[in-house]
Specification:
It contains 3 helices and 11 strands, in the order ββαββααβββββββ. It is α+β, with helices and mostly antiparallel strands. About 5% of the residues have low confidence.
Length: about 190
């Protein structure tokens, strides 16, 4: 046997063929075709295999003069629209209108509050910055004393079971972010 001819085994559709360095052209074409089918299949599947969207809000809190707790809250617009639509019994599109402001104030005031029960009188809406991917809402909660208070944050937990609400206390940046879920909707706030 000539030592210059190298034999290699190639696997094609469950059959093994012995070939020399020169692969027959029909097998070479088949090899290239299967590689293209594989690559195209991966590309098609990757467009449909999107990760599960996360459902979360993020809020920043800061105490201001007069015992007010100023809040900046980031929400996904489609999640908030879903919650407001369920309450209104009709489709709600987030726009900066008096009707949407009133619905937002009522919804947030009853689900994000200090103390043991919601107090809509302590809720003061400041403004909103609406975007297609995320929206920011600004409001204040009046607290008579800056002593330790219990904060309830169950925003969107009635709409999304996997909703996670994160709260960062700007007066305590070294402290961990508070995480609120449907199972744990309350945390104690300290002013230190």
């Amino acid at each position: 046997m000539d030592s210059r001819i190298v034999t290699k085994t190639v696997l094609y559709s469950d059959k093994c063929f012995q070939s020399t360095e020169r692969m027959p052209s029909c097998l070479r074409t088949l090899d290239i075709a299967w590689r293209w089918v594989f690559v195209l299949s991966l590309l098609c599947l990757s467009t449909f295999a999107r990760p599960h969207p996360s459902h979360q809000s993020y809020s920043e809190l800061e105490w201001s003069d007069g015992g007010r707790l100023d809040v900046a809250m980031r929400l996904y617009p489609e999640d908030l629209e879903l919650a407001l639509s369920a309450i209104a019994g009709k489709s709600v599109v987030l726009r900066d209108t008096p009707e949407v402001r009133s619905m937002f104030a009522s919804y947030i005031g009853s689900r994000f509050y200090l103390g043991s029960t919601p107090d809509l009188a302590s809720f003061s809406f400041v403004g909103m910055e609406l975007g297609s991917r995320e929206s920011w809402f600004f409001f204040s909660l009046v607290n008579q004393s800056r002593e330790s208070s219990v904060l309830t944050n169950n925003i969107l937990t009635e709409v999304r079971e996997s909703q996670v609400n994160r709260v960062r206390r700007l007066w305590a940046p070294q402290e961990p972010t508070l995480v609120f879920t449907a199972a744990e909707p309350k945390h104690r706030l300290s002013v230190d």
